[in-house]
Write a structure and sequence with these properties.
It contains eight helices and ten strands. It is an alpha+beta fold and about 280 residues long. It has a six-stranded mixed beta sheet, sandwiched between helices. A two-stranded antiparallel sheet has the order 1-2. Strands 7-8 form a two-stranded antiparallel sheet.
Length: about 280
């Protein structure tokens, strides 16, 4: 699986400007991290789902970014980070993007081998999405972990509820990136030119990332079409200080083991299997 490597390599590059002249790797009011995570997950799933690759190659599906879905039960709407579905009835008002285009637009950093793999993937194209087949929500918990937990839990729970109450047969996928760095430079606490003044640095208690992972494990997972929860759920633990230094992937605790149901590799495998079994006949 290349997704985790792609994600940490891309986020290692500061690319989010603020009005004070600083460039950030992560900013809570930017969706760069979620877009790159969705791109990386799709890159891996296209290699592991036979039917998704076939449908992309034959033009049977499109992808949409920040696509609105409506909870039929409550009539509430929510924008999902990435959706895959049948082509919609109307074209986009602009030229559609491909995964290659998004990699350039979002500054996705690939190794030479990963670029070669991307060139061999079927041409999945952006478009308006009609019937949704899969929807992905990507979240990050980078600092102030304990304070952020209720909102993180509620947003993820509302994501799978919205997907399944909009389109019951659609696959709902959740992904969470958790920061285990002991320190973090928060853009919210550093609203000035950091080249002229030392940053204010947050310190994270040792249990913060562990408690966040435990909360993610409490999120429901669906085992049948009549049950509630995500059809696939994964978590990744990184060390990001947000000071321009390299982002590192954490493989030891509190990160999931490769065999855990919420590990990145098991998430991708579950997406691929569920898609192939559910939508092989479209």
């Amino acid at each position: 699986m290349d997704g985790p490597d792609i994600l940490v390599r891309t986020l290692s590059q500061p690319a989010i400007p603020d009005k004070h002249g600083n460039l950030w790797q992560y900013h809570s009011r930017s969706d760069r991290h979620s877009k790159v995570a969705c791109w990386a997950i799709l890159y891996d799933v296209l290699q592991h789902s036979t039917q998704l690759a076939v449908h992309a190659a034959s033009g049977k599906i499109r992808f949409g970014i920040n696509r609105e879905m409506r909870d039929f039960r409550t009539n509430r709407t929510k924008d999902l980070d990435l959706v895959i579905g049948r082509p919609g009835p109307t074209p986009l008002p602009r030229p559609p993007a491909t995964m290659d285009d998004l990699a350039v637009r979002w500054g996705v950093r690939l190794s030479a081998e990963q670029r070669a793999t991307l060139a061999q993937l079927p041409p999945l194209v952006e478009g308006t999405v009609g019937n949704v087949l899969m929807a992905l929500e990507a979240k990050a918990c980078m600092t102030a972990h304990i304070k952020a937990l209720p909102r993180l839990f509620d947003e993820l729970t509302s994501s799978y509820a919205t997907v399944h109450n909009d389109t019951p047969q659609a696959l709902a996928v959740g992904f969470v990136m958790i920061n285990a760095s002991p320190t973090f430079v928060s853009p919210d606490l550093n609203k000035y030119d950091l080249s002229a003044q030392h940053p204010t640095v947050n310190e994270h208690p040792p249990h913060a990332a562990t408690r966040t992972m435990q909360k993610v494990m409490e999120i429901e997972r669906r085992t049948s079409p009549s049950s509630d929860g995500f059809d696939a759920l994964g978590a990744l633990v990184v060390s990001m200080r947000n000071d321009g230094s390299r982002v590192e992937l954490i493989n030891e605790s509190p990160a999931p083991k490769p065999t855990d149901v919420y590990s990145y590799s098991r998430m991708v495998g579950r997406i691929a299997q569920a898609y192939d079994l559910t939508f092989g006949g479209i």
